[in-house]
Design goal:
Strand content: 5-15%
Number of strands: 10
Number of helices: 13
Distance between the termini: 51 Å
Bound molecules: adenosine-5'-diphosphate, 2-acetamido-2-deoxy-1-O-phosphono-alpha-D-glucopyranose, magnesium ion
CATH topology of the largest domain: Aminoglycoside 3'-phosphotransferase, Chain: A, domain 2
Structural class: alpha+beta
CATH class of the largest domain: Alpha Beta
Order of helices and strands: HEEEHHEEEHHHHEEEEHHHHHH
Helix content: 40-55%
Strand order of the largest sheet: 1-2-3-5-4
CATH architecture of the largest domain: Alpha-Beta Complex
CATH superfamily of the largest domain: Aminoglycoside phosphotransferase (APH), C-terminal lobe
């Protein structure tokens, strides 16, 4: 690992002397490092270096092609709108031979971004306004990419939010039960099975042409947005690995799943977990404003469903990973994925109780 990291550090176009390197962030997928360089005349310069998770993103070259194309497109739009392209989108630092990624001697893929300074990624909502700002930013992100030629994007993870397919994978994992864990989580398994309709609803609407495919982010967690420390605005949408054609309601829903929860994704005390309707309302308002009229009536109607489906799907993915031996999401303790799945199912139950209110809140902003 260290060898690959050092090789990578030596192979990007960095200036100055390396004075600090440390693991960074709390993402579940890639290995992220913060590097700091002393650069003459410039002072301390930070960069982000990431080892891409090759077993999840099996086509890293295509993935980087997506990122280069999307970020250069956003750069142009941001400049046209009078924004600051160095802070409002990711900027890839090339390797010494001009490529957007480096392959180390063990075949691992690395990429590097300019560090966005003066901004913070939050793992939980500290100030409600941050959540509203993240909604504006994710809605706006979708709007900025509305005219992006979607057909040129590679599908970086096949069927990423194909909840029906995820349901089949889940059933398969229960049947195989490779770790012998299924018997001890029957309650959670039953929860998934009894909600099969939730797995089907959005895919069915999309198949009938009632929900349009758009260029979406697909991983709209609060910690995938940088909030400007001074202005409090959602300055930059990051973690672009899963930008692909998808459903707007899923982008909305994934943000609710993570940010409107009253507890952390891996909270063990389930009595602390619920869907905070005032945070939900802030996000509804911000997302609808950010999308600026681009959502159809059906999409607006299905926003609460997006929240429920994304929460159910994520819980099912955590449970699948637990059953399969924790090979997908990084875990930091025994049973971590099981804890995560339980919070998601608790949230789904809570949303079901609050369903009418969730729908009313959307109507208020339409
Ligand atoms: P993962 O896919 O593992 O979630 P991310 O791309 O989201 O990886 O990066 C992990 C964390 O690293 C982010 O939550 C954020 O804190 C930080 N980060 C990533 N890119 C940048 C950047 N360009 N500037 C500043 N911080 C960043
Ligand atoms: C992963 O990469 P990160 O930590 O932002 C996952 C999301 C899940 C999320 C759950 C590529 O997101 O789909 O919703 O964990 N990303 C991928 O926290 O699978
Ligand atoms: Mg992330």
């Amino acid at each position: 690992m260290k060898k690959g990291l050092n090789e990578a550090i030596g192979n990007f176009q960095y200036k100055g002397i390396l004075v600090n390197e440390q693991p960074y962030g709390s993402g579940h997928i890639n290995d992220t490092y913060l590097l700091e360089f002393d650069v003459p005349e410039e002072g301390r310069v930070k960069v982000i270096l990431q080892k891409m998770n090759k077993s999840i993103f099996t086509k890293p070259v295509e993935l980087m092609e997506n990122i280069m194309n999307v970020t250069s497109y956003l750069r142009k739009v941001i400049i046209k709108n009078g924004g600051d392209p160095d802070r409002e989108t990711l900027n890839v630092i090339p390797t010494v031979d001009g490529k957007p990624y480096f392959v180390d001697s063990e075949g691992e893929y690395w990429r590097s971004y300019k560090f966005i300074t003066g901004a913070t990624c939050y793992d939980a909502v500290e100030k409600p306004d941050d959540f509203y700002q993240s909604a504006l930013a994710f809605g706006n992100f979708q709007r900025l990419l509305a005219d992006y030629p979607a057909e040129t994007l590679h599908e970086t993870i096949e069927g990423f939010h194909d909840t029906k397919a995820r349901f089949r994978t889940f059933k398969n994992a229960v049947e195989k039960d490779v770790c012998g864990r299924a018997a001890s989580v029957q309650k959670e398994i039953d929860f998934v099975l009894s909600h099969e309709d939730v797995a089907n609803v959005l895919g069915d609407l999309q198949a009938k042409g009632e929900l349009p495919l758009r260029v979406t982010h697909n991983d709209t967690k609060l910690n995938n947005i940088m909030i400007d420390d001074e202005t409090g605005k959602g300055i930059c949408v990051i973690d672009l690995d899963t930008v692909m054609p998808g459903l707007a309601v899923n982008d909305f829903g994934d943000s609710i799943r993570f940010g409107a929860s009253t507890a952390a994704e891996d909270e063990q005390d389930l009595s602390k977990v619920s869907c905070d309707l005032s945070l939900y309302e802030l996000y509804v308002k911000g997302f609808i404003e950010g999308c600026a009229g681009s959502l159809t009536a059906k999409e607006l109607e299905m926003l609460p469903m997006g929240a429920k489906v994304m929460t159910y799907e994520c819980g099912m993915r955590f449970l699948t990973d637990y059953l399969e031996g924790d090979h997908y999401f990084k875990i930091h303790r025994e049973g971590h994925n099981l804890d995560r799945c339980r919070t998601q199912f608790k949230l789904v139950e809570d949303m079901e109780k609050k369903w009418d209110e969730m729908a009313e809140i959307v109507k208020k902003y339409c």
